[in-house]
User: Which sequence fits this backbone?
């Protein structure tokens, strides 16, 4: 590894890092720190009045059972999304990798839906799976499933998860395909010659080699599940029924941009930051130990 | 999305500075928070543009009608005005609150009546009554409309696009089911029996639909003469509670629950205006509760889908019928604008409130005119005879008594209260929560927001 | 460079060599498994594409109300819808703005991130891991979290209503830095040492050695950045006015006023389909580098 570090000029390194670091500080960290300060205030919107309330906003969160439910739901949701999207994408990427004919067509078709704007994606699914009016509702009900996610919490949760997974598959396929293309053909051949079946080849030969990519995707998908999914909920369930889909980012979005409760919303951002930051840290520690960084 | 009130339409009048102030104001909120002091303008305000500027949420055909009125105003007075479309009532509210805070403001903002209190509470808007010239015939406004917009005895904002909820029904389906299309249901129990007949005869899948929006609950309360909030729905002081411990509330939710249990009601979803309309137009449900502004859309939509449509008064919870609450929006004007603009601002308000403009607006959109003169002129020109559907909402409004219950809720945390009422309704009508239990949860959650 | 190519080509040759002996056998197996695999793949991909296909179909209809599966056939309003959206409601203008914004963000992010990764991977300097973590943790700060102060800052700079406002704040990219770092780490160090022996400077090294070896991953990342930038809504909505406004906000102009009974689903979907075209073009154009990252797989 050490041999890779062939350049030594500190000022050169600093100059190369400067644009990214500068933009990070100015446009990301500084505003975030300021936003976090807001969590100590009760802010009146339209008048500019802000009352210092200390940790009151945090106390509200600490004692709110609805918020606790929301935290729990979000963690469950993130786990479901990460596992769902990665297993589905792994299969799709693997199959694309396996075929010779139509590779490009399959790849483009698998990635393209990822470009659909989240709100539009939510709307299309609403349209397709509306409990009373959905285009697919009756065909699905023929299989004995009562499509009822307006009142069934578990169904609503499952629906949101499916949509969130669907939306993120393209992203995963891009990286997984690239990573599979890195696998030396010789390895594939050896496995084939040894009569290793497809599934076992995917799980025991490819996956370990792809582990850095998979680790990266686990982190990215976690962040996506926590931060990138509020549009689906805004369009389809508004957090309901009975809070069953009220995940943290939607809750925060509603408080900040619909109800103008900036103080509480900021406190919620801090909590969210800590939760995801902690998860990310754990993921890094785990993958550092286990991921195979080849080369 | 169809479920929010996003509107689309003409873009030619948008301007680059539209949202600048709004964001600045949002930012000001942040900074104020950090330093713990009050930001803002201390009484004087800067206009965002040299010419008069109106921020609005009217898209599609309504936006085009509004722009035409703006052009006419320019032609008649030589005063220029820009109409700036801002996506939704929610965006206009956000941007306007931000603007008030930063001190760089538009001259007019079209604010949804639901959010009126939030704007009034900033103390940074000027009552429009003070901008109208002395001779302006204030008494010609329809009293049922202006009563909502009059706070502390002064007209605070200029009612412009106003509506109430009415019932649309599918005449063709009624006939097929052997119901009399000239005698539509007028109470909830009649809605239920008509729905049963319609479904039993196999004409439609369900009887009725409406978006799960607080406005409909407000209508059921007001038509029953029942206040929704104490302190006269917020018009006689600060409200502290939601009034759900009464027969109106119980009867309403029992009925709603029964309709849902027997599949007589299509639940389109929370704030799902578009889905409700579609369910009606694609004849899944034979009755639809929605805004009077749907009149034109109902006619063309029904034609396209091959049935005859009509409308009627909003169905009441019991036998009593007091009156509807108003809906729609009004124009607010920020305080502290330079004196030399105030005359122009007044001129525009008077123009928009003029009988001619109101007639044009009514015909183009289905919102009712707010001037008695306009109503009279439309009537004598035979407009309502030719277009009886346009008449219904107005009749419903004018037959209404002067009851505090018909004044729409005027509460600060309106959006929060709205969300609680809508969200909590769901488990009640699906049967997952008891009616009493749900209503008391609704009450205590709203009380928490009001406290 | 020839040396590089040779090294890169080794696994490829090995594969050829290995498969060469038993070509017939292998082809037969492929064909045998091929049908099942293709069937599985086709149905999975169709599942993914289905919502997009629905959007396309709705965009060809008059009102866009669909009553059942039978309604999923194209309507006759295609031209009218696309004309109204693009020309009458000037959606093309928003798309052009988005195109400018997204292109600037893609190029800017790539350049800025490549430089940073060059330092992180190929320089022996202290604290660079901390700097890397510092960049990485910006992932936890999405726009809704820092919305309010960011506005103050950008207006304070006088950038509102400029392209700078909707591009510069996006330039730091944890994702790009992470991906490129990981990719560079997978390039054998021996290659680097060879380059070093040839006395190549850092920027030339980046340009002539690293970038040619990273085409696939760069294209993949570009697609992702493009889609990310293209789908921005909240920030452009408040920071720029109509002249620079982006397609996601412009979509709002196509939606009817639902409360007034406007059921403008066809137009909404027309706009959505239009916003899907640029990413599609990008994918089709660059599918080859995407497939052939290291030119290992195919001949």
Assistant:
């Amino acid at each position: 590894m050490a041999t890779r570090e062939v350049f030594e000029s500190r000022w050169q390194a600093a100059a190369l890092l400067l644009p990214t670091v500068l933009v990070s500080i100015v446009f990301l960290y500084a505003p975030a720190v300021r936003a976090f300060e807001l969590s100590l205030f009760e802010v009146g919107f339209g008048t500019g009045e802000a009352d210092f309330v200390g940790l009151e906003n945090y106390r509200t969160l600490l004692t709110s059972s609805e918020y606790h439910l929301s935290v729990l739901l979000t963690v469950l949701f993130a786990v479901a999304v990460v596992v769902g999207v990665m297993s589905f994408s792994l299969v799709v990427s693997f199959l694309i990798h396996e075929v010779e004919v139509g590779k490009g067509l399959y790849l483009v078709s698998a990635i393209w839906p990822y470009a659909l704007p989240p709100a539009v994606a939510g709307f299309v699914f609403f349209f397709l799976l509306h409990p009373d009016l959905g285009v697919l509702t009756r065909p699905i009900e023929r299989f004995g499933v009562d499509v009822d996610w307006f009142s069934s919490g578990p169904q609503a949760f499952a629906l949101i998860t499916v949509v969130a997974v669907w939306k993120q598959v393209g992203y995963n396929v891009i990286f997984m395909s690239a990573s599979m293309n890195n696998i030396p053909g010789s390895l594939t051949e050896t496995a084939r010659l040894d009569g290793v079946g497809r599934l076992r080849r995917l799980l025991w030969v490819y996956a370990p080699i792809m582990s850095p990519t998979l680790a990266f995707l686990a982190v990215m998908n976690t962040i996506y599940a926590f931060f990138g999914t509020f549009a689906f909920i805004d369009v389809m369930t508004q957090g309901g029924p009975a809070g069953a889909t009220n995940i943290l980012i939607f809750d925060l979005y509603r408080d900040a941009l619909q109800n103008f409760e900036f103080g509480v919303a900021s406190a919620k951002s801090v909590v969210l930051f800590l939760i995801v930051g902690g998860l990310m840290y754990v993921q890094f520690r785990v993958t550092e130990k286990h991921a195979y960084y080849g080369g | 999305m169809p479920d929010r009130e996003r509107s689309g339409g003409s873009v030619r009048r948008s301007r680059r500075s539209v949202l600048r102030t709004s964001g600045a104001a949002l930012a000001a909120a942040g900074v104020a928070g950090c330093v713990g002091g009050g930001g803002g303008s201390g009484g004087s305000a800067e206009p965002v543009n040299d010419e008069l500027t109106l921020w609005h949420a009217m898209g599609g055909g309504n936006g085009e009608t509004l722009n035409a009125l703006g052009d006419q105003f320019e032609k008649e007075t030589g005063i220029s005005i820009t109409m700036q479309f801002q996506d939704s009532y929610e965006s206009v509210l956000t941007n306007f609150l931000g603007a008030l805070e930063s001190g760089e403001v538009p001259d007019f903002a079209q604010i949804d009546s639901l959010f009126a209190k939030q704007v009034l509470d900033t103390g940074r808007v000027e009552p429009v009554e003070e901008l109208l010239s002395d001779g302006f015939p204030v008494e010609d406004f329809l009293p049922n409309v202006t009563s909502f917009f009059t706070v502390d005895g002064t007209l605070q904002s200029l009612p412009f696009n106003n509506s109430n909820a009415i019932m649309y029904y599918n005449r063709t389906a009624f006939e097929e089911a052997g119901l009399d299309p000239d005698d539509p249901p007028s109470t909830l129990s009649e809605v239920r029996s008509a729905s049963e007949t319609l479904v039993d005869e196999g004409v439609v899948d369900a009887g009725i639909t409406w978006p799960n929006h607080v406005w409909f609950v407000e209508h059921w309360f007001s038509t029953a003469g029942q206040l929704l909030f104490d302190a006269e729905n917020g018009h006689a002081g600060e409200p502290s509670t939601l009034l759900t411990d009464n027969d109106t509330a119980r009867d309403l939710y029992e009925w709603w629950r029964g309709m849902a249990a027997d599949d007589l009601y299509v639940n389109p979803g929370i704030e799902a205006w578009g889905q409700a309309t579609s369910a009606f137009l694609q004849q899944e449900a034979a009755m639809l509760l929605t805004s009077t502004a749907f009149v034109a859309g109902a006619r063309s939509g029904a034609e396209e889908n091959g049935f005859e449509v009509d409308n009627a008064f909003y169905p009441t919870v019991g036998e009593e019928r007091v009156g509807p609450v108003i809906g729609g929006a009004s124009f607010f004007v920020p305080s502290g604008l330079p004196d030399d603009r105030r005359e122009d601002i007044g001129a525009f308000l008077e123009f928009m409130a003029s009988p001619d403009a109101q007639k044009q607006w009514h015909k183009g959109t289905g919102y009712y005119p707010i001037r008695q003169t306009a109503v009279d002129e439309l009537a004598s020109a035979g407009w309502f005879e030719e277009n009886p559907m346009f008449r219904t909402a107005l009749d419903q409004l004018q037959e209404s008594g002067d009851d505090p219950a018909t004044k729409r809720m005027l509460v600060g945390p309106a959006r929060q209260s709205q969300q609680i009422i809508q969200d909590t309704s769901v488990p009640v009508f699906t049967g997952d929560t008891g009616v009493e239990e749900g209503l008391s949860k609704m009450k205590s959650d709203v009380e928490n927001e009001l406290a | 460079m020839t040396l590089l190519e040779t090294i890169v080509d080794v696994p490829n040759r090995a594969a050829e060599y290995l498969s060469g002996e038993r070509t017939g056998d292998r082809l037969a197996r492929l064909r045998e498994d091929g049908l099942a695999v293709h069937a599985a793949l086709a149905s999975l991909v169709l599942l993914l594409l289905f919502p997009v296909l629905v959007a396309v179909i709705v965009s060809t209809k008059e009102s866009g109300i669909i009553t059942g599966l039978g309604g999923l056939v194209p309507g006759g309003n295609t031209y009218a819808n696309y004309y109204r959206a693009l020309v009458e409601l000037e959606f093309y203008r928003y798309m052009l703005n988005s195109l400018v914004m997204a292109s600037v963000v893609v190029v800017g992010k790539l350049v800025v991130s490549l430089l940073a990764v060059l330092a992180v991977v190929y320089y022996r300097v202290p604290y660079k891991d901390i700097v890397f973590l510092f960049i990485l943790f910006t992932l936890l700060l999405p726009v809704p979290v820092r919305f309010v102060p960011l506005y103050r800052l950008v207006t304070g700079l006088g950038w509102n209503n400029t392209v700078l406002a909707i591009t510069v704040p996006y330039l730091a990219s944890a994702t790009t830095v992470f991906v490129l770092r990981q990719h560079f780490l997978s390039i054998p160090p021996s290659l680097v040492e060879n380059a070093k022996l040839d006395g190549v400077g850092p920027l030339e090294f980046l340009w002539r050695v690293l970038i040619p070896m990273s085409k696939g991953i760069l294209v993949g990342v570009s697609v992702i950045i493009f889609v990310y930038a293209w789908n921005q809504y909240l920030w452009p909505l408040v920071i720029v006015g109509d002249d620079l406004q982006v397609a996601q906000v412009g979509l709002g102009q196509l939606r009817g006023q639902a409360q007034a009974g406007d059921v403008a689903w066809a137009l909404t979907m027309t706009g959505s389909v239009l916003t899907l075209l640029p990413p599609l073009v990008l994918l089709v154009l660059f599918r080859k580098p995407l497939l052939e990252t290291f030119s290992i797989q195919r001949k």
Remarks:
- Chain A touches chain C through 112 residues (CB under 8 Å).
- Chain A has one domain: 2-290.
